[in-house]
Description:
Low-confidence stretches: none
Number of strands: 3
Helix content: 10-25%
Number of helices: 1
Amino acid sequence: MAYVVISGEFPGHKASEIGKKFLDLPKLPDFVKTEHVFNAVAGKYKFFTIYEITEEEKVF
């Protein structure tokens, strides 16, 4: 098992546009599971997501 952390930020006025794009993304493979998603808005929209990779041979 392995974990991947993704973080990023974007201007708050782009949130609607990015949300629509998010809905169009392909589904994650079965061996990738979203563990936690953290969001904050303070001028910019910031996110921090933790993914669990359940099949190590897919990573290493």
